[in-house]
Amino acid sequence: MTTPARALRLPIRPELAGEEPYGAPQLDVPVLLNVNENPYAPGPEVVASIASAVAEAASGLNRYPDRDFLGLRGDLADYLAVESGVRLSAEQVWAANGSNEVMMHVLQAFAGPGRTVVSFAPTYSMYPEYARDTHSRYIAGRRETDFTLDAAHAAELIRAEQPSVVILTSPNNPTGTALPPATVRAVLDAALEVDVDGAPAVVVVDEAYGEFRRDGVPSALELLAEYPNLAVSRTMSKAFALAGARLGYLAARTEIIDALRVVRLPYHLSAVTQAVARAALAHAPSLLGMVKELRVERDATVAWLREQKFDVADTDSNFVLFGTFPDRHAVWQGLLDRGVLIRETGPEGWLRVSIGTREEMTAFKDALVEVAGL
Ligand code: PMP
């Protein structure tokens, strides 16, 4: 039987019709400053440790991996104790293939049909997608013109919308803005007053860029003991320079973690991933060694952009949002034509550049001088 030559019709969910997969262009150009990666590849000692850990894991790959991976979760808890001074047990830590998957677990467990997820825009553009993919309603509150979050507005929105999940991002992507603890507390307090089937809202603070925060800016991890409805999400993709390994994690009360364990797929974290992450964590000081340098380079980039009279958002992250351009696409394209890939994202007129090596930032600045006619 022959198939008639017409478009294949599929029973795709109506809300997915015409949707494009999320993702920035992956282009082969010399200077990649578009997805907030760490420009410093793991050094030879780390590579050797990872390789031997993977070899050991390989000899057991006929078996499913450790489903509850308490070894890795304990290592992550130990790392967080050193990084933020907050001591958690292995049972208070969860992990998955990138913090994207961690967040999906959160929404699968706590959002869903008839439920609402609240976040504050401009922010990470995957949040509405997590909501869509879990059949949840998504409401974006606003950030102020300087991208800070007005605590009264946030509390009011939470009261009005009664979400089951609130996502705060600190430092925020794409603006770089970190939230002061008073704002996080105001949101947590408002979330405690929510009544979704008799329960308060869960607040996830997405700290994917947490390690890049400036001195004196605390992590929301410090509030975990006080607020039962708080979860803090982190990743090894950025500060750990391990984006390719796909390891995100989350810290919260065991009751929250236990709910995530219900929705995870069986054996979601491969034995190879677990081995890579544990080997890398044993080298945390060396992997994180370049964070300080990136923060210095970040502050220098902010200062330079301001000297050129650009508007620059205050940033506690490894990227800088700057502008504004009447035709930002032309600027983005002009930089790309000169071998520098940045990101066309954020509010109209703004562009985002990730912090690379000193040489890469020089290439970026030189290209921008030409393109913007400085
Ligand atoms: N949260 C934020 C705010 C991000 O910017 C990103 C990555 N761009 C993620 C989460 C996801 O990171 P990953 O899945 O690599 O952990």
TrEMBL record:
Protein family membership: Belongs to the class-II pyridoxal-phosphate-dependent aminotransferase family. Histidinol-phosphate aminotransferase subfamily.
Keywords from the named record: Amino-acid biosynthesis, Aminotransferase, Histidine biosynthesis, Pyridoxal phosphate, Transferase
Domain spans labelled Aminotransferase class I/classII large: 31-366
Subunit details: Homodimer.
Top-level taxon of origin: Bacteria
MF-aspect GO terms: histidinol-phosphate transaminase activity
EC number(s) from the headed UniProt entry: 2.6.1.9
Pathway given in the UniProt record: Amino-acid biosynthesis; L-histidine biosynthesis; L-histidine from 5-phospho-alpha-D-ribose 1-diphosphate: step 7/9
UniProt cofactor(s): pyridoxal 5'-phosphate
Residue numbers bearing the N6-(pyridoxal phosphate)lysine modification: 238
Pfam families found in the cross-reference section: Aminotran_1_2 (PF00155)
Catalytic activity: L-histidinol phosphate + 2-oxoglutarate = 3-(imidazol-4-yl)-2-oxopropyl phosphate + L-glutamate
Keyword Transferase: yes
This protein's encoding gene: hisC
Protein known as: Histidinol-phosphate aminotransferase
EC class name: transferase
Family annotation (InterPro entries): Aminotrans_II_pyridoxalP_BS, Aminotransferase_I/II_large, HisP_aminotrans, PyrdxlP-dep_Trfase, PyrdxlP-dep_Trfase_major, PyrdxlP-dep_Trfase_small
